[in-house]
């Protein structure tokens, strides 16, 4: 029997990645965005064919499912998605399926979550200069959905994917457990390297001339941060007051690096760097990857290894 697994990703184009040779005996895994896709392929190995719904290089926050995407999910045996404000469509669709709903993994149900945060200096509709932390009960605020950015959360998610695959396909349980153990060990290694760099660094502050979808990462390692926008902001132009604030922060704290995230035009960071002499570097949030990176076999772990050297430069 051929099982199908769908992992949710955000974009209007269905994208199938032929990483493994097709076989009727293999699971079919469909992912909505890159993190779910990566954790699933790491655990499934050569026992699955994996499809990612979010087109490489696309903006995850503007994804809207096509009828074809919906059909893929309906026919799946396992659906993996993030949950939260950007995935309301998925919750609605799953509710409509009644008894025909596929098995699901919802990332925000696996880990402790916090609310989207607006820190001092950010351009936002509502500016709050204090931290909002709200575990599981989010009636008063919007959940920060970027749970995978903490390697510790990535470990929990990978284990959950393993547990579900073992339940669905018990014949290959030993394979899934072995693959998950190996990948979790790689993520743990990255976590230990981040911990060491931050513990031994001169400063514990990072500045992003961009959105900041790395709240869980910052919380995991005790980092303070300043940024132009919150993680899910749709703004593309920062206010003059925000840019002035970030320039002054970089100057006063002698911050050597201003970060951008993947697929950013980098203009805000450029402005800050030109005024301060700081260096612009990318910190990849793993929302999505480029076509070339996908072809090269980049993974969550390999991307986080890139982030290690960038963070070290920023904190020393």
Please list the strands of the largest sheet in the order they lie side by side. 2-4-3-1-5-6
User: What is the H/E string?
Assistant: EEEHEHEHEHHEHEHEHEHH
Q: Which of globular, elongated, flat, extended, rod-shaped describes the shape? A: globular
Radius of gyration: 20 Å
Low-confidence stretches: 1-23, 126-139
The largest sheet, given as strand count, sense and whether it forms a barrel, is: 6 strands, mixed
Mean pLDDT comes to 86
Class by SSE composition? alpha/beta
Strand content: 15-25%
- The total count of strands amounts to 10
Termini distance? 55 Å
Helix content percent band: 25-40%
Output the number of helix runs.
10
List keywords for this structure.
316 residues; 10 helices; disordered N terminus; globular
Describe it for me?
- With 316 residues, the protein is α/β, with parallel strands linked by helices.
- The chain is built from ten helices and ten strands.
- It has helices spanning 34-44, 67-74, 88-96, 151-168, 173-199, 215-221, 240-252, 267-276, 291-295, 300-315; strands at 4-8, 15-16, 27-32, 48-52, 78-81, 103-106, 205-212, 224-230, 257-260, 279-282.
- Strands 2-4-3-1-5-6 form a six-stranded mixed β-sheet, covered by helices on one side.
- Helix 1 (34-44) packs across helix 4 (151-168) and helix 5 packs parallel to helix 10.
- The termini are far apart.
- Mean pLDDT is 86; it is low at 1-23 and 126-139.
């Amino acid at each position: 029997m051929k099982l199908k697994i769908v992992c949710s990703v955000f974009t209007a184009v269905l994208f199938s990645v032929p990483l493994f040779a097709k076989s009727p005996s293999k699971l079919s895994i469909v992912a909505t965005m890159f993190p779910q896709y990566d954790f699933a392929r790491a655990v499934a190995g050569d026992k699955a064919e994996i499809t990612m719904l979010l087109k490489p290089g696309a903006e995850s926050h503007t994804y809207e499912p096509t009828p074809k995407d919906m059909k893929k999910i309906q026919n799946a045996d396992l659906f993996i998605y993030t949950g939260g404000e950007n995935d309301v469509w998925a919750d609605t669709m799953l509710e409509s399926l009644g008894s025909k709903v596929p098995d699901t993994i919802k990332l925000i149900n696996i880990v402790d979550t916090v609310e989207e945060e607006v820190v001092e200096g950010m351009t936002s509709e509502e500016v709050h200069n204090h931290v909002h932390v709200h575990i599981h009960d989010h009636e008063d605020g919007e959940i920060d959905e970027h749970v995978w950015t903490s390697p510790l959360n990535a470990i929990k998610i990978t284990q959950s994917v393993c547990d579900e695959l073992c339940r669905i396909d018990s014949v290959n349980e030993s394979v899934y457990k072995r693959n998950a153990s190996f990948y979790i060990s790689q993520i743990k290694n990255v976590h230990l390297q981040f911990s060491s760099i931050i513990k031994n660094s001169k400063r514990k502050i990072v500045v992003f001339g961009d959105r900041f979808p790395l709240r869980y990462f910052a919380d995991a390692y005790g980092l303070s941060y300043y940024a132009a926008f919150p993680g899910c902001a749709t703004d593309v132009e920062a206010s003059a007051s925000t840019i002035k604030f970030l320039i002054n922060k970089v100057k006063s704290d002698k911050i050597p690096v201003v970060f951008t995230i993947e697929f950013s035009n980098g203009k805000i960071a450029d402005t800050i760097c030109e005024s301060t002499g700081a260096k612009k570097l990318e910190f990849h949030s793993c929302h999505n990857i480029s076509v070339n990176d996908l072809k090269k076999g980049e993974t969550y772990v390999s991307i986080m290894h890139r982030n290690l050297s960038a963070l070290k430069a920023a904190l020393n």
